[in-house]
Amino acid sequence: MKFLSPLVSVTIDDGWKSAYTYALPLLKKHHAKATFYVITGAFDEPHRLSRDQVRRLASIGHEIGAHTRNHLRLENVPSSREKRDQIVWCQDDLSDLGILAETFAYPYGEYDETYKRLIKEEGFTAARSVIRGYNDRTTDKFLLRVQGIRNTTSIEEMKGWVDEVRRNSLWLILMFHQIDYSNSNFATTPELFDEILSYINLHWVEIDVVKNIAHLLG
Question: Are the C-beta atoms of residues 201 and 135 closer than 8 Å to each other?
Fold first, then answer.
């Protein structure tokens, strides 16, 4: 089932400091809000967001989503207790900053049915995977699909994703990590980030945070 109009969410994972240094000014330039999925155990580490920066992002209308405390692979949290601890500790860390996380992103996109159940039980309204694709109103809101950006992703490819949701009134979730010049596997240059935001705005596609759009799903 389609949406009434095409939708885009910009998500930025792992709490890299570059999200504040480079991405934030460009989001402001384009009047866009993003969802930042943060690893709370990494706050204040070198090259990571500080607690004050996370608090600032939330205060100006960006969504802060949960990405666990320690970003462990699924095989390293085999029990329900270990999974729940990572979820709850992350919620508690954000609560200490005055932030209520409503949506969750699975570390490395890895999940099982237990993880999904725990996310629901702890009060999250949606969870983002790394399954490639687009979302419509029938998508499982605890397995939201994405288009992930790596350092090899071209602007033409990203524009193609936007065109697809424009044609079919779908929801595109863009998954970014570092917005910088590091050329690491998951890095995107500020210029490329700027260009895709410009393209989305040029074609009058609404950009909104994950928690707001997830409420539209059945």
Answer: no
**Quick one: which H or E segment has residue 127?**
strand 126-132
Q: Read off the pTM.
A: 0.98
* Residues composing the chain: 218
Which of 177, 188, 149 lies closest to 49 in space, CA to CA?
A: 177
If we measure between CA atoms, which residue out of 161, 212, 189 comes closest to residue 32?
212
Q: CA 148 → CA 20, 152, 162, 180, 201, distances in Å?
A: 20, 11, 13, 16, 20
> 42 Cβ partners below 8 Å, 6+ apart?
14, 15, 48, 49, 71
pLDDT at 218 over 90: no
Alpha helices (runs of H) in the chain, residue ranges in sequence order: 18, 24-29, 51-59, 80-95, 113-121, 155-168, 190-202, 210-214
C-alpha span between 60 and 63 (Å, rounded): 9
- What's the pLDDT score for residue 155? 98
